[in-house]
Amino acid sequence: MLANTKAKTPNKFKHVSFKEQVKKNKSVFIIYVILRTLVVGVMVLQILNRDWENVFLCALTLILFTVPSFIQRNWHIEIPNVLEIIILFFIFAAEILGEISSYYVRYPGWDTALHTTTGFLAAAIGFSLVDILNRSDRVKFDLSPLFVSIVAFCFSMTIAVLWEFFEFSMDHFFAMDMQKDTIVHVINSVTLDPTLSNTVVSIKGIDDVIVNGTALGLGGYLDIGLLDTMKDMFVNFIGAVVFSFIGYFYIKGRGQGKFAKKFIPTLSSDSLNSEEKDTDKA
Asked: Which residues in the chain land under pLDDT 70?
């Protein structure tokens, strides 16, 4: 056992004040202020229009904006500036532009882009959680770079599955349309087989659908959510694979990758120093 000649200090992390955090992450703070101002402006307009659902979305957005800062101050995890800026823009794009400004409906690729980003970011978060444990002296945890990458990928895909469960539940129980519908022109189904012999029956060239005697005028058949869900899962898969690949070589080179560092949260210096002191005392 090594002797500790220094006076014992409480095993607590140094609290980072808001001013110190702003000074350290000036670019993040500027983006935060701009986006927050825009959200407040949108909230005022929604209040004037008495659209309380959108007012709630604005309030939720303002709360979500504070999450990265809260994590850094209270959980002693350093979030790279690039990652934090992407998270802020992602929240704004999903809630304000996507929901309130109807970008999900106006721009078909909007949802796809956000789900791809989600897959990438979720893999980064899962990767950092495992990597922090892997490098901690307090936890006996020693995983290979390949296994850490696989865990990050599985973490991202699990988040995607849970989100699709949430969307389905909201649509099923609250009559919403979070699983956006898709117009298709071909149906392949064994349900249409009158012989019940599990034979696929195809209907091609569908250019309209009549429901209760009224033509919907959509130019095709209305697929209820399935294609949207599978597309979301697939693009999430792509984002997760891309980051898992990057993370693998990041660990292989033990932190040498400059690009990967921009997306991987790490323990704060205070946290690392605390662990080192605890190890010296052991």
From this structure: 1-24, 136-137, 139-141, 254-256, 269-282
Place of tokens 């649509």: 171
CA–CA distance, 132 with 267 (Å, rounded to integer): 7
Q: Which domain holds residue 133?
A: 104-175+225-282
60 and 38 share a domain? Answer: yes
CA-nearest of 189, 207, 212, 184 to 199 is: 189
Question: pLDDT tens across 99-155, in order?
Answer: 999 999 999 899 999 999 999 999 999 999 888 887 766 766 677 889 999 999 999
Q: Does the model's pTM come out above 0.90?
A: no
Taking alpha carbons only, the member of 194, 197, 217 closest to residue 207 is 217
What is the phi/psi pair of residue 238, to 5°? -60, -45
User: Into how many domains does the chain fold?
Assistant: 3
Q: How far apart are the first and last CA of the chain?
A: 6
Residues 6+ apart with CB under 8 A from 172: none
